[in-house]
Design the sequence.
């Protein structure tokens, strides 16, 4: 008769969390990881960051080589903004020593999803030291009166 | 989530405790050109971290001081990556030097769970080469960095004598706070081993490459080392560096989130 050792609840949970971690890593690798440039569209994807405060959402984008007067912020639906900017000069991949791909870039473009409801029609935009800052006011949540 | 964190912590410890000091020293291979070593020099460290300040500063030092590669790290703990320069393979973690400076630099984000053994190996190697002081170059993130006119550079040290020496040279001290990442490991290990060490931290963006912060750091480094570095080329090439460094910054962000790097914003609880 074979004696099978039962796994403890902690071993089962350990395995469960390890699986989740592996799944998250493979999901990121497959769906999120992609080149930060697009040769067909001649665009480079800049770095961006989204900060959520109690009253507003602040999206910042690092726009090196951007011509300030060409920076554009568009809304795409209720929860996404797109940032576009022409570059001061065309950048070729061989400027970075890359010779096994060919590509020339003249625009910076990225999209940022806003994870909470905001007023997209009332956004404030600032550009300073090559950093674009977009501030979007959050839609008010239901206020609960304190008795 | 807590369970996930404890699993990660356990894995960190396992990896870090698997290697003895002598085994770790074998990871650093000297090149033929490197003879008996440079005695009594300073060893600098530039690892990918917030704003990539350390790596940008290190890269500028290599070209400005005309440092040449004297050793490299060869370890299975590094990701399976080589860096190709002019068609030839290089380890992502290398040591450069001239007659009085050693500089350890990593061109790729170091996986969070291997930082301990990698930093320990580099410090042990420096120690075996009779380095007189170790200085880590990095950044400290600040909110609304773009609105800061004068970038502050702060220092901490591994012992009171080194701290006093740095203060006497006019560098501001980081009095209270948390330090997370390679420089934290370096400071702790050097303090335990009695090696004089310092960390210079320039105010910077959290997740955007910051050449301006690197330039300010190099100005303060000159106070510590007594060697002035011309940063004009670094500032002129600022936009190019920011564009080139996006991918390294993105990879570094992923590792920083595993390390809980945002803890550097926290206010510490003072325990005397």
Sequence:
């Amino acid at each position: 008769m074979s004696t099978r050792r039962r796994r403890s609840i902690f071993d089962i949970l350990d395995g469960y969390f390890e699986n989740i971690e592996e799944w998250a890593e493979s999901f990121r690798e497959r769906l999120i990881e992609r080149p930060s440039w697009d040769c067909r569209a001649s665009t480079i994807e800049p770095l961006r960051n989204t900060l959520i405060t109690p009253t507003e959402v602040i999206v910042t984008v690092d726009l090196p080589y951007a011509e300030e007067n060409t920076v554009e912020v568009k809304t795409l639906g209720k929860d996404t903004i797109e940032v576009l900017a022409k570059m001061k000069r065309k950048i070729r991949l061989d400027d970075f020593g890359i010779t096994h791909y060919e590509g020339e870039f003249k625009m910076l473009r990225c999209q940022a999803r806003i994870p909470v409801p905001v007023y997209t029609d009332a956004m404030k935009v600032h550009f300073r030291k090559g950093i674009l800052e977009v501030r979007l006011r959050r839609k008010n949540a239901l206020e609960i009166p304190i008795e | 989530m807590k369970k996930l964190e404890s699993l990660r912590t356990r894995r960190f410890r396992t990896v870090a405790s698997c290697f003895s000091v002598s085994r770790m020293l074998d990871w650093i291979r000297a090149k033929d050109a490197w003879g008996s070593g440079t005695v009594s020099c300073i060893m600098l460290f530039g690892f990918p971290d917030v704003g990539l300040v350390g790596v940008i500063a290190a890269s500028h030092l290599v070209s400005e001081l005309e440092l040449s590669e004297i050793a490299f790290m060869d370890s299975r703990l590094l990701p399976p990556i080589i860096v190709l320069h002019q068609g030839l393979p290089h380890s992502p973690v290398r040591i450069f030097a001239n007659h009085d400076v050693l500089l350890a630099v990593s061109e790729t984000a170091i996986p969070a769970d291997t930082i301990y053994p990698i930093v320990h190996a580099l410090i042990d190697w420096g120690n075996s080469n009779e380095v007189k002081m170790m200085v880590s170059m990095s950044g400290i993130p600040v909110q609304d960095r773009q609105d800061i006119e004068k970038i502050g550079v702060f220092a901490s040290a591994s012992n009171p004598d080194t701290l006093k020496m740095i203060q006497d040279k006019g560098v501001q001290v980081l009095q209270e706070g948390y330090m997370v990442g390679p420089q934290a490991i370096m400071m702790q290990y050097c303090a335990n081993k009695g090696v004089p060490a310092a960390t210079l931290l320039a105010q910077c963006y959290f997740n955007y490459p910051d050449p301006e912060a690197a330039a300010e750091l190099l100005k303060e480094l000159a106070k510590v080392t007594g060697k002035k570095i011309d940063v004009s080329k670094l500032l002129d090439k600022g936009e190019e560096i920011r564009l080139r460094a996006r991918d390294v910054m993105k990879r570094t962000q992923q590792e920083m989130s595993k390390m809980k790097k945002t803890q550097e914003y926290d206010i510490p609880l003072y325990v005397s």
The mean pLDDT of chain A is 85. Residues 36-138 of chain A form a domain with the Immunoglobulin-like fold (CATH 2.60.40.790). The two ends of chain A are 68 Å apart (CA to CA). Chain A touches chain B at residues 13-14, 17-18, 20-21, 36, 44-47, 49, 60, 62, 64-65, 91, 96, 128-131, 133 (CB under 8 Å).
